[in-house]
Amino acid sequence: MNIRKAIDQDRHEVWEIFTAVIQTGDTYVFAPDTAKEDLDKHWFSPYMDTYVLEENGEILGTYIIKPNQIDLGSHIANASYMVHPKAQGRGIGNLLCEHSLMEARKFGFLAMQFNLVVSTNKVAVKLWQKFGFEIIGTIPDGFNHLRLGYVDAFIMYLKL
């Protein structure tokens, strides 16, 4: 498996992952019917860096890294990760997180913060905690889960 910066030719495969992941409405704030035209602003915007994980020429995962806030808050990174449903359970999320933390340090970020981790996404919460992220806040009913209704969301933080 190889993680590299995304290129224009990757957009279609990244879209396939993006749309498959958001269809469930249980982990990301994006509406399941998000238009393909919106992928650029959500995953390929100029203020973020986009990466893909490929195996045998097939993209199985992707992540973005960006400043969590502008200007005086730009020393803290933010990242989002997606793994193709057919490749889940193979440690790809682990590899993407590990890579993003190395990149964040390389870019000079002092910390990384996840602004909205769905509390019912136990796999993600456990993975981020494995990397040392702490839950520093809970947003009551912060996520409108498509099956469960309103559920809490966590703010998670790691000092780099």
Would you give an account of this structure?
With 160 residues, the protein is α+β, with helices and mostly antiparallel strands. It has a single domain, classed as Gcn5-related N-acetyltransferase (GNAT) (Aminopeptidase, 3-Layer(aba) Sandwich). The chain is 26% helix and 38% strand. The protein contains four helices and seven strands, in the order βααβββαβαββ. Strand 3 and strand 4 form a beta hairpin. The longest helix has 16 residues. The protein is globular.
Secondary-structure element order, N to C? EHHEEEHEHEE
Helix content: 25-40%
Give the uncertain stretches in residue-range form. none
Overall pLDDT score: 97
What general outline do the C-alpha atoms trace?
A: globular
Strand order of the largest sheet: 1-2-3-4-5-7-6
Radius of gyration: 15 Å
The biggest beta sheet, please?
7 strands, mixed
**CATH second-level architecture:** 3-Layer(aba) Sandwich
Integer tally of domains: 1
Distance between the termini: 25 Å
User: Any idea what the CATH superfamily is called?
Assistant: Gcn5-related N-acetyltransferase (GNAT)
| Relative strand content | 35-45%
Number of strands: 7
Q: Briefly, what CATH class?
A: Alpha Beta
* CATH fold assignment: Aminopeptidase
Count every helix, treating DSSP H or I runs of 4 or more residues as helices.
4
Structural class based on helices, strands and sheet pairing: alpha+beta
Organism: Dyadobacter frigoris
GO molecular function, one term: acyltransferase activity, transferring groups other than amino-acyl groups
Keywords: Transferase
InterPro entries: Acyl_CoA_acyltransferase (IPR016181), GNAT_dom (IPR000182), Mito_N-acetyltransferase (IPR052742)
